[in-house]
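Example 203, ligand S-adenosylmethionine.
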Amino acid sequence: MKAALDGDDRVRVEIVTADAAAEDFGAGLPAADLVWASRMVHHLPDQQAGVARLAGLLRPGGRLALAEGGVSARCLPWELGVGAPGLQDRLLGLRDAGFAQMRTEITGAVSMPYGWNVALTRAGLAEATSFSVLTDHPAPPTPAVRESVVAWLTGLSERVGERLGEPDRATIAALLDRSADTYIGAREDIYILGTTTVFVGRR
Ligand SMILES: C[S@@+](CC[C@H](N)C(=O)[O-])C[C@H]1O[C@@H](n2cnc3c(N)ncnc32)[C@H](O)[C@@H]1O
């Protein structure tokens, strides 16, 4: 996504659908004040080249913002009374292992053994820095938090898929069964706590 300030200070936002791994990515687009890419660059074979391509979309003085990293949301108590304690730690561990495998399976993957602020600097951007935004919806949960936690557990368990052992799979089925006493969405002790980190550099 690119955003530009018009002369009268209105923000003009342009949604661009394109392959950020392609050599001609962004060709023909007007230079932008802001390029925002959220959790996308880590899917590219050559992440550093992708950052450089995104940086190339900026006008002088424009900023590239990358939402990457951060601290994954936690939503559950350690012990749930169903299945073995520590379910969310196992799920997040399996998710991370899946991420590592995803990187190794990308054709032409290039390692980037440093952090995103360094990647911004190596892409020729100045003042590379970062900040983190806290997401904190403490227990007891509102109805919206209940639904979000159900969606989080559903999405996370689908993502780790067959890596999940049968006992944890049975636990998750019990937690997601809306008609059962074990339904996660009916608990008073669920919450959402996590952070999103944004790395910013200026051309
Ligand atoms: C983890 S999702 C993030 C979605 C959303 N931006 C967010 O922050 O929630 C990864 C996104 O990267 C996009 N993506 C993966 N490879 C890409 C590529 N080569 N060019 C452009 N987008 C890509 C996918 O289409 C997907 O939308």
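Summary: The two ends are 17 Å apart (CA to CA).
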